[in-house]
Amino acid sequence: MKNLFSKSLSGRNLIIVFASFVVLLTILGVLFFEGSKNTVAITLNDEHMVVKTHADTIKEILDELDVSPRSQDYLSPKANTKVKDHLKVVWKQANKVHIVKDNEKKTIWTTAGTVAELLTEQKIVLKEQDQISARPQTAIKNKMNIDIKIAFPLTFVDGGKEQQVWATSATVADFLTQQGTKLNELDRVEPSLTETIAENGVINIIRVEKVTDVVEEPVQFAVVTKKDESLEKGKEKIITMGKHGRVSKQYEVLLENGKEISRKLISEQNITEKQDKVVAVGTKDLTVQVSRGAAETGTEFYVTATAYTAYCNGCSGRTATGLNLKSNPNMKVIAVDPRVIPLGTKVYVEGYGYAIAADTGGAIKGNIIDLFMPSKTDAYRWGRKKVKIKILQ
Questions:
Q1: In a 3-state reduction of DSSP, which class is residue 127?
Q2: Same domain for 377 and 343?
Q3: Do 144 and 174 fall into the same domain?
Q4: Interatomic CA distance for residues 165 and 129, integer angstroms
């Protein structure tokens, strides 16, 4: 019995030892298997991780991670690179981006992280005045649309005030909207709102407005003459003093850029009525009161006066009384009808001055006198007129 128990115990120990050996071998095998893996640092779309792998190439590593790179993606090193311990792998998935630059569309694949990186990658340099639909720090997404409008210079005139500006708009209407400029009902724009803007072009807004202007204006009085037989001919007498009136006029005024272009009378209203000036004009002819050859000192009457010179046709240069007019061009001499004004009479002629009646003439009959002038110019300037003459002595 004792021997049987000893044999049984020895067999059990053998099994335990064997099992322990198998476990040890398994552990050693696992440790060896794990220890034989390569350590790889991998970055997938900016996410960092460390993997241990028996993969032979980078492609096999990506397959293990269920990553299928496309030709547009960024992968470093290349997919067929042999895996080594402590290898660093970077994979970045490319995104499809649509860039519309001045209405020209371009589709690209990019691994840029932000819009700013994309612009640098595509060598697109923007000015401060250019417009882009996304901010530079915006992250790139797949199927993203980026709209770029390149600014160009032009001259903008608003109400006569000129300034140099930048524009990215296609039409004049778009430009005004971009500038925040509003048009009033009557304003005009050159060129028209639908016109396409040209580089270095000119956009001109003419500010038009209609205003009402009320002004008071004087109304000139008229001068009304009435014949008066009780007054001497040539004399006048004011019967009624004239007085200006006033009228209020309302105008519709058209202004362009603040300057008056036209005005239209809308209405008018009398404020003060005008009063015409009434003047009595004498018609009494004093000449009928003067007897021929009976002119007396102090007598005044009207005569018709003409003018002549010492060099007129048929003139000798000497008067009927023997005065030499050529030698005395500044002498005041008149030719008269001796039956009305005797020769040698001193007179005062209105508009001519003091003179002596010292000459006669074939055409000098009745109340007609002829004034001696130093030159033809003076004679022509005098012409023919009715004047008052006064007998001095």
A1: coil
A2: yes
A3: no
A4: 9
Q: Quick check: 319 and 359 in contact, CB under 8 A?
A: yes
Average pLDDT over residues 301-323: 89
Residues 317 and 323: beta-carbon distance below 8 Å: no
Range of the domain at 129: 95-149
Distance CA 378, CA 77 (A): 119
Phi, psi of 224 (to 5 degrees): -105, 125
What does the alpha-carbon distance between residue 260 and residue 38 come to, in Å, rounded to a whole number?
91
Q: Mean pLDDT, to the nearest integer, of 2-9?
A: 52
Helices (H) and strands (E) in the chain, counts: 5, 24
User: Which residue type occupies 365?
Assistant: K
Is 273 in the same domain as 234? yes
Q: Are residues 169 and 253 in the same domain?
A: no
Asked whether residue 224 carries a pLDDT value surpassing 70, the answer given is yes
Residue 20: HSE in the Cβ half-sphere, 13 Å Cα cutoff: 6
Q: Out of 56, 72, 92, pick the residue that ends a domain.
A: 92
Cα 169 to its chain centre, rounded Å, is 21
Residues 333-347 have pLDDT tens digits of 999 999 999 999 999
Q: Is residue 31 part of a domain?
A: no
Q: How many CB atoms lie within 10 A of CB 120?
A: 13
Report whether the peptide linkage leading into residue 191 is cis, meaning its omega lies within 30 degrees of zero: yes
* Structural domains counted in the chain: 5
Q: How many CB atoms lie within 10 A of CB 42?
A: 20
Q: Which amino acid is at 155?
A: T
pLDDT tens, 248-279?
A: 999 999 999 999 999 999 999 999 999 999 98
Average confidence score pLDDT of the chain: 86
Distance, in Å, from the CA atom of 383 to the CA atom of 359, rounded to the nearest integer, reads 19
296 lies in the same domain as 221: no
Are 115 and 182 in a shared domain?
Answer: no
- The number of angstroms, rounded, from the C-alpha of 392 to the middle of its chain's C-alpha atoms is 75
What type of residue sits at position 85? D
Residue 112 to residue 91: CA distance in whole angstroms: 12
Question: Residue 62 phi/psi, 5° resolution?
Answer: -65, -35
Residue 120 belongs to a domain with what CATH number?
Answer: 3.10.20.30
